[in-house]
Amino acid sequence: MSRTGQTREFPSGEKLTVAEVCAELQIARRTFYEWRAKRKAPKCITLPNGSIRIRRAELDRWLGSREDAA
Is residue 58 part of a domain? Predict the structure, then answer.
């Protein structure tokens, strides 16, 4: 969700930066990297320059796998 409370539509092939994922999840960058170290974060792509990207489809899948059935 954006800060205005509206969801943004993303193409499923879009690759998000760590900053974009953190903003969407409303978490600190440090939290993302802690989750990644514990293998609790969504799967990431490491580019040749060391930058990390997360596929939109992978983030959506990862979020869906964490939904409660309550």
Answer: yes
